Each structure stands twice: as C-alpha cells, then as structure tokens.
C-alpha cells in the first residue's frame, strides 16, 4: 500500500475523501455528536497511514490538492450571509460587538494560558490563530514565526470541539437567539462551527459565515499586537 501512495498522485486525496464519506455516513446513522465527520476522517486517515507505514510527506504530496479548495470554500460562505442581509443591517452593532468580544476573548485566553503553562513565544504565536479558518490561520502563524503545521492541527481541533459542544453550551446557558448562536460558533470554531450553525438554522449559518470573515480580519490585526505581550 505504501507503494501505491508513492506511485499515485491522487492516493492521498482518495483516502481523505473516503474517510470523510465514512464519517458522514457514521454520523447520520448513529447521530452521536462526537462522531464528527472531520474528526472521524482524521482518525481513519491516521490509522491507514500507520498500518500501511506511509510517511506523512508521501501522503501529503497526494492530499495537498484538497487545500486548494480552502479559500474558495470560505468565500462561498458569503452566500447565506447575502440571503440574510436585511437582518444583518438591522443588527449590525450587536453583530460587530459580538465578534469583537469573541476575538479578544480568544486571544486573551491563549495569552493567559500560555503564561500559566510557561510556553515559549513560538508556542504562543502558534496558538493565537486557533479560532480562525485554516486558510488565514496558516498565514498568521507563518508571519508571526509559529509552527504552521501545529497551528493547522490546533485550528482543526478547535473547530471540531466547537462543532461537538456548541449546542450543549447553548442549552446550558439558555442561549436561544439565532444571531447569538451563529456569532458564537463562527467566531470560536470557524468553518467547522459554521457547518454546525447551518445545521441549526439559516440565520445561524449566515451570522456564522459573517463571523468567519470578520474574525479572520480582526485576528490578523490583533494577533500582531498580542504577539508582543509575551
């Protein structure tokens, strides 16, 4: 199987897509929150690579084509926002306030925890972009001198956790406003959280889509400021 990965330029893409399809089917059949398709696909892919003794670089050579779709996929999230444009105009102050609060909370939390745990500056800036979409987060991490590969992993983990526990948090704190739900998921769990927001409702999905873009822009600006705090 290792030879197949080395000889085929599409082996990585094929394994990744099959693993995700398996995760999606599993989630639909069992309907268990923790069986997030992305989480399942990551685990399945890792198991396949370990069992087949395939080097990560060999796998990534065939799977890298998937990353080309990150930016256009993020841009496509503007469609549900356009459909809820009137709602956004009537609530723009609360929306912007919520997103700003989410970004500052995320960055401050990383700062405090890194100081408490005694992490290095490089570890710290690696974690700063944890709540923004991968396409933007990779650039922020690289610009600040962080470990880009670890940043990608942290972003994925953050999104998966947000996707899994989002509705639970809403129930615990009795959050019923659709706009609030969308902003919370988008500003904390980026695209993966937005996928959950879209499952919940159209308004939640639209607000979450907006959060991804604005959170990304604000994080790019504020992360460079926060990088000097440690």
Automatic annotation (TrEMBL):
<feature type="transmembrane region" description="Helical">
    <location>
        <begin position="94"/>
        <end position="118"/>
    </location>
</feature>
<feature type="transmembrane region" description="Helical">
    <location>
        <begin position="33"/>
        <end position="53"/>
    </location>
</feature>
<keyword id="KW-1133">Transmembrane helix</keyword>
<dbReference type="GO" id="GO:0016020">
    <property type="term" value="C:membrane"/>
</dbReference>
<dbReference type="Pfam" id="PF04172">
    <property type="entry name" value="LrgB"/>
</dbReference>
<feature type="transmembrane region" description="Helical">
    <location>
        <begin position="147"/>
        <end position="170"/>
    </location>
</feature>
<feature type="transmembrane region" description="Helical">
    <location>
        <begin position="6"/>
        <end position="26"/>
    </location>
</feature>
<feature type="transmembrane region" description="Helical">
    <location>
        <begin position="65"/>
        <end position="82"/>
    </location>
</feature>
<keyword id="KW-0472">Membrane</keyword>
<keyword id="KW-0812">Transmembrane</keyword>
<dbReference type="InterPro" id="IPR007300">
    <property type="entry name" value="CidB/LrgB"/>
</dbReference>
<protein>
    <submittedName>
        <fullName>Membrane protein</fullName>
    </submittedName>
</protein>
<feature type="transmembrane region" description="Helical">
    <location>
        <begin position="206"/>
        <end position="229"/>
    </location>
</feature>
